[in-house]
Amino acid sequence: KYPYRPRPLNLGKLLEQVEEDARRREYPVAFARTQMAPGTHMILGDVSLLKSLFFNLLKNACQASRANDITLTVHPAPGQVRITIRNDGEVPPSIRDTFFDKMVKGPQSSGMGIGAYSAKLAVELHGGTLALDTSEPGYTTLTILLPSAPPSPAI
């Protein structure tokens, strides 16, 4: 069993590290600069799990993208942080209902079909949600909601 060890994390810094790692691995994509709304986005989370989660979702977006049009956006919401990953390219209609199931993969995938499944498990372990949106023609958007870290007590 994985020893889940959440601690307060600055989500913006973590996502910048993931984006840098994706560039080092030479994924052929032109990321939009991570768009951060003003303020610090603190969450409680496990660094290793979250890095793996976001790296896998970005890798999937790279594989599905036709024109390397990928945007990662972070916005605060009451008591939580909303992260969206939007890429050109649509999830095929045949797998939309089972997208987060084990062993489901798209036609461009070189993996085993466990990336979206494990991402959903990791998000849920952190007390969040992960949703697929294919309502915009030609695009796919994943929305991750993670609880904000409770405020630190004043000293």
Notes on the structure:
- The chain is built from 3 helices and 8 strands, in the order βαβββαββαββ.
- 28% of the residues lie in helices and 28% in strands.
- It has helices at 11-24, 47-64, 115-125, and strands at residues 7-10, 30-31, 35-36, 42-45, 69-77, 80-88, 129-133, 139-147.
State mean pLDDT (0 to 100 scale).
Answer: 83
Please count the helical segments.
3
What is the molecular shape?
A: globular
The Cα radius of gyration reads 15 Å
Helix content: 25-40%
Question: Structural class given helices, strands, pairing?
Answer: alpha/beta
Question: How much of the residues is beta strand, in percent?
Answer: 25-35%
Q: Give helix and strand order, one letter per element, not per position.
A: EHEEEHEEHEE
Extended strand count: 8
Largest sheet: 6 strands, mixed
Low-pLDDT segments: none
Distance between the termini: 37 Å
Main attributes of the structure:
alpha/beta; two-stranded antiparallel sheet; 3 helices; 28% helix
Mind sketching the topology for me?
Blueprint: E1 7-10, H1 11-24, E2 30-31, E3 35-36, E4 42-45, H2 47-64, E5 69-77, E6 80-88, H3 115-125, E7 129-133, E8 139-147
Parallel strand pairs: 2-5, 3-5
Antiparallel strand pairs: 1-4, 5-6, 6-8, 7-8
Helix pairs in contact: 1-2, 2-3
